[in-house]
Design goal:
- The complex is a heterodimer.
- Chain A contains 12 helices and 4 strands, in the order ααααβααβααβααβαα.
- Chain A has helices at residues 2-24, 30-38, 48-54, 59-72, 80-90, 97-107, 117-129, 132-143, 153-167, 179-191, 201-210, 212-220; strands at 77-79, 114-116, 150-152, 198-200.
- In chain A, the strands form 2 sheets. A two-stranded antiparallel sheet of chain A has the order 1-2. A two-stranded antiparallel ribbon of chain A has the order 3-4.
- In chain A, helix 5 crosses helix 6 (97-107), helix 6 packs across helix 9 (153-167) and helix 8 (132-143) crosses helix 11 (201-210).
- The longest helix of chain A has 23 residues, at 2-24.
- In chain A, 22% of the residues are buried.
- Chain B has a 4-stranded mixed sheet with strand order 2-1-4-3.
- The chains are: A mainly alpha, B mainly alpha.
- Chain A binds chain B through residues 60-61, 64, 67-69, 71-72, 86-87, 89-90, 103, 106, 120, 123-124, 127-128, 135-136, 138-139, 142-143, 159-160, 163, 183, 186-187, 191, 204, 208, 211, 213-214, 216-218, 220-221, 223-225, and chain B through 1-2, 4-5, 7-30, 33, 37-39, 54, 56, 99-100.
């Protein structure tokens, strides 16, 4: 009942507004345009020296990174939409939006919905020039969607499903049955030492360090930049 | 993939670390990236303006000139930069494309120049950004239309007819372009006159004339002077039929002609008469007969052949078909709505003229177009209110599509004006172009002439004002002459030779071989002179062969016994031309092939000097060295 009256009131207000506009003309449109302009902010990163100190990149590398970044995002920030769009171009076969979403959250350390150059470069520094422990911590934070310090089955399932979504429909061998679920089960088998249904950071790090395959693969990513 | 995405690739690869704990297998080895990470600045010099950019910027688009190794061809070692001899203003836009990934089209530039630049740098125009794509497409379409118009105007049928056109082609041209011949113009005006006469007769025959004696009622003139009008109508129809049949005969594609609008109008204009002739005079079909007479008014559309304005109007209406359709549709909608409303509003009143909804249609139309005859008027208040709304909306609905139609008409009209202007200037342009073309050919002929006159003297005089290019070009033409054993000559002398060759048998001043046969050739028919010529040619050929191999120039001025004019080179050229035209006489070829061989044993120096002589010049010097030639022949 209350909803009805509020909706009626809203309708009446809208009608009065439209009548008003009919009389006064359409000069009220300008207000909306003002609002738009407020959102075009420009972010500048901190100085080059500070970034050099905080990350493991050299000055020329930072320069190259920033030039590319600024070219793509003149406003200085990347929002989630752009991020998803970029990822969609890298993985055209499937749907990369969910994974891009989780990745975006992993990079967006300040949690304000946009990645600035500082976040970008810090994340890259960890991934490319960081120690093994830092990399594993980063990965843990990627999997831990709600940032509660534990990875539970649901979170893992979501991540794995997002990764399998990127593969798309046409794979060989074909995806039959609930492959992501099996993958998650295997993962938990390996990682969850005390079988309590969640994986903590220490369990994760220890389990990874025991995994020979993974350690070997880690080294291959050293030379991406 | 867009170049910008390439910037993000290292980032995406780095983020792949996040998959590692889940991976069941080892990751593959990454590709070895040998390119140095440090970026370097490249210098690009375009017509003196130096641009600098990062190498990575240019590498973004590897399938263009600047992004691939093709630019190495333009590298200048001394100045350590890439030099392009192109427009630097356009280059700005090209370089901005690399920098921003979007290609913009500068509005003030010529579309063709821009296209050429894009083609040079290997960039496809399809990647022009959305902001400029529309403008680019519009300009391009406009340019193409203009080019099409130009080519059409160039092939305008004002150009002279090809020499061997049949009667049909000539007739068709006369019909399509009355200005080409006087006869066509006369015919054009006569048909125009008869169309006017026919239309006026149709109109006048309905005017009431004074009634004949003994009757009170006014009679239309058509019935009073029935015979006169019938005769006039017959005459007009005869002319129209004749014209239509002529056009049908002359049309290059009869099917297409029969389907064209003008021919349909022609048929519709003359059919009623024939149908009227055939139909009997009874009462039942006379109604239909009267209807047919209405079609006679279509003769007025025949004027559109004569008037360009009418054609433009017709074309405009055709091109605005969608706007007109929209107008019609919206009007129909409005009419139905308002007619219904008015009918029901006026239903109750006594003596109302709104008897049915279709009857209200008439009121609605008259009101919406603001005519307001007043034969149907609403009486109720509701009817009056709706009637006023109807007239207000009518103004709006009709006013909306009109500007579109007007702008279309204006565009087409201006196009036509431009085409007309261009056609008028076409003659001047063609003449200028022909002169320019002649300049180059004349240069070569002039060069040959100079060589002839100055042969033996110092060649320094020949070298007057000729650039290296011209020298080499002339040398090339000379080589071609030597290859084919024929010489270049200009159009006038060639046509002169052909003409004299064809009429040569009859005139005493002819230069053909047959003239030597004397008077009895003149009376012979067309074929005989040829045969006679062949006979003499054989004789000539034999004598040629038996005369020295090298007596080239003697052939020019062979003089046979009798007062026949000398056998000049021009006449032999005439034979050449004759050869080209019809008879391929082997003897002739024997005679002619021996021409260019240099004189081996000509003792005389006052021979006409070199083979490279313009026949035109020789014509003047016809009376040269035949005396000694006669001697030569008689010595055989």
């Amino acid at each position: 009942m209350a909803g009805c009256t509020s909706r009626c009131k809203q309708g009446v207000i809208k009608l009065i507004q439209s009548l008003q506009r009919l009389v006064s003309g359409t000069l009220t449109k300008d207000k909306i345009d003002d609002e738009l302009e407020m959102t075009m902010v420009c972010h500048r990163p901190e100085g080059l020296d500070q970034l050099e100190a905080q990350t493991n990149f050299t000055k020329p590398e930072l320069q190259i990174l920033y030039r590319g970044f600024k070219n793509e995002c003149p406003s200085g920030v990347v929002n989630e939409e752009t991020f998803k769009h970029i990822y969609a171009q890298f993985f055209p076969h499937g749907d990369a939006s969910m994974y891009a979403h989780y990745l975006f959250n992993a990079f967006d350390t300040t949690k304000n919905g946009s990645i600035k150059f500082r976040d970008f470069v810090m994340g890259l520094s960890t991934l490319l020039r960081g120690t093994l422990r830092e990399k594993l911590e980063w990965t843990f934070h990627l999997y831990d969607i709600n940032r509660d310090g534990y990875i539970n089955r649901e979170e893992m399932t979501e991540i794995v499903r997002a990764i399998y979504d990127m593969m798309g429909k046409y794979t060989y061998p074909a995806l039959k049955g609930d492959v992501p679920q099996q993958h998650v089960d295997a993962f938990f088998q390996k990682m969850d030492k005390n079988k309590d249904g969640v994986v903590t950071l220490d369990e994760f790090i220890i389990a990874c360090q025991e995994d020979e395959t993974m350690m070997r693969s880690m080294q291959l990513f050293e030379n991406v930049m | 993939m867009a170049a910008g995405v390439a910037t993000w690739l290292p980032f995406a690869r780095a983020a792949a670390v996040g998959w590692l704990p889940l991976a069941k297998k080892t990751m593959p080895k990454p590709p070895i990236d040998n390119s140095s990470r440090s970026d370097e600045i490249l210098y690009v010099n375009v017509s003196g303006v130096r641009f600098q950019t990062w190498k990575n910027t240019l590498d973004r688009y590897p399938d263009t000139l600047l992004g691939s190794s093709e630019k190495e061809f333009f590298y200048n070692e001394d100045t350590q930069e890439y030099f392009f001899d192109r427009d630097h203003e356009m280059f700005r836009h090209i370089l901005n494309f690399y920098r921003t990934g979007k290609l913009h089209y500068p509005r003030h530039e010529c579309i063709q120049a821009f296209d050429e630049e894009l083609a040079f740098y290997g960039i496809v125009p399809e990647i022009i950004g959305d902001c400029c794509m529309e403008e680019y497409r519009d300009r391009k379409k406009e340019n193409q239309e203009r080019l099409a118009e130009d080519t059409e105007a160039n092939e305008a049928s004002d150009a002279p007819l090809p020499p061997h056109s049949t009667l049909r082609e000539r007739l068709w041209r006369a019909f399509e372009n009355p200005h080409t011949s006087t006869m066509a113009l006369v015919f054009y005006y006569v048909t125009g006159f008869f169309i006017a006469v026919s239309v006026i007769a149709n109109v006048v025959e309905t005017v009431p004339c004074r009634p004949p004696k003994g009757s009170v009622k006014d009679l239309p003139c058509g019935e009073k002077y029935q015979l006169a009008f019938f005769c006039m109508d017959t005459a007009c129809v005869l002319i129209f039929t004749f014209e239509y049949l002529m056009r049908l005969f002359a049309a290059p594609s009869r099917c297409k002609f029969m389907r064209s609008v003008m021919s349909v109008i022609d048929v519709v204009a003359i059919m009623p008469y024939y149908i009227g002739l055939v139909m009997p005079e009874n009462e039942d079909v006379s109604g239909a007969f009267v209807t047919l007479r209405v079609f006679r008014v279509f003769r007025i559309f025949k004027f559109s052949r004569h008037s360009q304005g009418l054609r433009i109007l017709g074309y405009t209406l055709k091109s605005c078909a969608s706007e007109l359709g929209f107008l019609l549709f919206s009007l129909t909608m409005a009419i139905i709505i308002f007619a219904t409303v008015m009918f029901y509003a006026e239903k109750g009143t006594k003596g109302s003229t709104f008897t049915s909804i279709p009857a209200s249609f008439w009121y609605t139309i008259v009101t919406m177009t603001t005519l307001g005859y007043g034969d149907m008027v609403p009486n109720t208040i509701a009817g009056k209110i709706f009637g006023s709304i109807c007239s207000l909306s009518g103004v709006l609905v009709i006013a909306l599509p009109v500007p579109v139609i007007v702008s279309n008409f204006s565009r087409i009209y201006h196009q036509n004006q431009r085409a007309d202007k261009m056609r008028a200037q076409q003659k001047v342009r063609l003449a200028r172009i022909r002169m320019a073309k002649k300049g180059t050919t004349n240069a070569f002929l002039q060069y040959k002439e100079d060589r002839v006159d100055r042969d033996g003297d110092s060649t320094a005089l020949c070298v007057k004002n000729r650039s290296a290019f011209e020298h080499q070009h002339h040398h090339l033409l000379h080589c071609l002459e030597k290859t084919t054993n024929h010489e270049f000559t200009d159009e006038m002398t060639y046509s002169e030779l052909c003409m004299t060759e064809s009429v040569g048998f009859r005139t005493s001043r002819s230069t053909s071989l047959s003239s030597q046969q004397g008077a009895h050739n003149h009376s012979s028919t067309g074929c005989c002179p040829r045969r006679a010529r062949r006979r003499t040619a054989m004789r000539l050929a034999n004598s040629t062969v038996s005369v020295s191999r090298g007596s080239v120039q003697e052939l020019d001025t062979l003089h046979h016994k009798g007062g026949a004019p000398p056998q000049t080179r021009s006449s032999l050229n005439a034979q050449m031309c004759d050869l080209k035209l019809n008879c391929g006489d082997p003897d002739f070829s024997a005679a002619i092939i021996s021409i260019p061989t240099p004189p081996a044993n000509t003792p005389d120096e006052n021979l006409p000097p070199s083979p490279a002589v313009v026949p035109g010049i020789l014509r003047n010097s016809r009376a040269t060295v035949f005396t000694h030639d006669t001697v030569k022949i008689s010595s055989l």
